[in-house]
Design brief:
Helix content is 43%, strand content 15%. The protein is α/β, with parallel strands linked by helices and 347 residues long. It has a seven-stranded mixed sheet with strand order 2-8-7-6-5-3-4, with helices on both faces. Strands 9-12-11 form a three-stranded antiparallel sheet, with helices on one face. Strand 3, helix 5 and strand 4 form a beta-alpha-beta unit. The chain is globular and about 55 Å long. Bound molecules: pyridoxal-5'-phosphate. The site of pyridoxal-5'-phosphate (PLP) has 13 residues, from helix 4. Pyridoxal-5'-phosphate is lined by residues 31, 83-85, 109, 152, 156, 182, 184, 210, 212, 218, 223.
Length: 347
């Protein structure tokens, strides 16, 4: 039996999911929301199942309206998918021919390199540990014509970001390059390109957002992109017509209706819990990278912390990339998760 050689060459993207929920541990390994959604939201989701509409194929009447209202963007600039993972893949498939240059930050979220490999891109990287990230990206873009450049704003796992205006300059200075700006953690950083470009949306910009992090819907798998209408038209050919389940679509509308309540969690994490964890690490003399997101990267974390966290039933993420050998990433969660983490750090 024959497979396409380009597929045989690609490794499966397999995050270390095994046994997470059944472990009973505090899960600080995937940057998820640790607190459940507000009871009113959960009740509305449960009611949806009781209505018994599972036998009907999805249609998405309210979803685009809700996204348009949230982003302030017209519906022809919006496209949703099964998590931002699917959208990253769709964007690469829409614009990359085999051998086209793709610029990817490193270290960064594994899905970028995976989508690039599936599209048979010629991958170049720029260094997310550089002192001046905008300059590192600028130099990499100037070095050669680039079909697509990806930016994590903030970047996972380093937590840094390129200042919004500097990134916008790069977008405008390189009109022949697609810019895929992944804002999975933008609720936490408080920075988004969207607020800068609403009226004059650059044709080469694609901003990806997710409901998996601050909005607490990782299990239901919903993301969306804001892009110029020609890109939306092409993406619609790649994603299936019913890929997003009705319950996922409904859940997005519910969390957006309860947005203030749902996102109160973000301020708690960033203003209360994260500073407490950072202080505890400083007291222990354990260095970490400054982060604009709900996670911290700890360069010597495996040696300094992994055993201690494990003994206290806490799961962090041992980073797999060769350039991050010995690094541990921990998510910052809500009050209970932080209490457990501080017990481990201070105990
Ligand atoms: C930077 C970044 N982008 C995208 C995702 C995936 O989001 P989704 O659950 O919407 O596929 C993650 C998940 O960890 C992430 O860290």
């Amino acid at each position: 039996m024959r497979f396409r050689p380009s597929i045989l060459e690609v490794h499966e993207y397999r995050p270390p999911l095994h046994g997470r929920k059944s472990s009973g541990e505090v899960l600080l390994d995937f940057n998820e929301r640790t607190d459940p959604l507000p009871p009113a939201v959960l009740r509305e989701l449960a009611d949806w199942f009781l209505e018994g509409a599972t036998q009907v194929y999805p249609e998405y009447p309210g979803l685009l309206e809700a996204l348009a209202e949230t982003t302030g963007m017209p519906q022809d600039h919006l496209f949703f998918g099964v998590g931002s993972d699917q959208l990253i893949d769709c964007v690469f498939r829409a614009v990359v021919d085999p051998g086209d240059a793709a610029l990817i930050p490193t270290p960064s979220f594994a899905m970028y390199a995976h989508a690039a490999a599936l599209a048979q891109a010629d991958v170049r990287t720029f260094d997310m540990l550089a002192d001046d990230l905008a300059q590192a990206a600028d130099e990499a873009l100037a070095a050669r014509p680039t079909r697509i450049a990806v930016f994590g704003q903030p970047n996972n796992p380093t937590g840094g970001l390129i200042p919004t205006l500097a990134l916008l300059d790069l977008v405008r200075d390189n009109p022949d390059t697609w810019f895929l700006v992944d804002e999975a953690y933008a609720e936490f950083s408080g920075e988004s390109l969207l607020s800068r470009v609403a009226r004059q949306y650059p044709a080469n910009l694609i901003v990806a957002r997710t409901f998996s992090k601050a909005y607490g819907l990782a299990a239901l798998r919903v993301g969306y992109v804001v892009a110029s209408p020609p890109m939306v038209t092409q993406l619609a050919k790649i994603r299936g017509p019913y890929d997003l389940s009705t319950v996922a679509s409904h859940a997005v509308q519910v969390v957006l209706r309860h947005r203030d309540d749902v996102l109160a969690y973000v301020r708690e994490v960033m203003d209360v819990h994260k500073p407490r964890v950072e202080l505890a690490l400083r007291v222990l003399g354990i260095p970490f990278l400054p982060s604009r997101a709900n996670f911290l990267l700890i360069p010597d974390g495996v040696a300094l912390l992994a055993d201690r966290l494990k003994a206290h039933g806490i799961r962090g993420r041992v980073m797999g990339q060769p350039e991050l050998k010995g690094c541990l990433r921990i998510s910052i969660g809500g009050a209970e998760a932080t209490r457990r983490l501080l017990d481990a750090l201070e105990g």
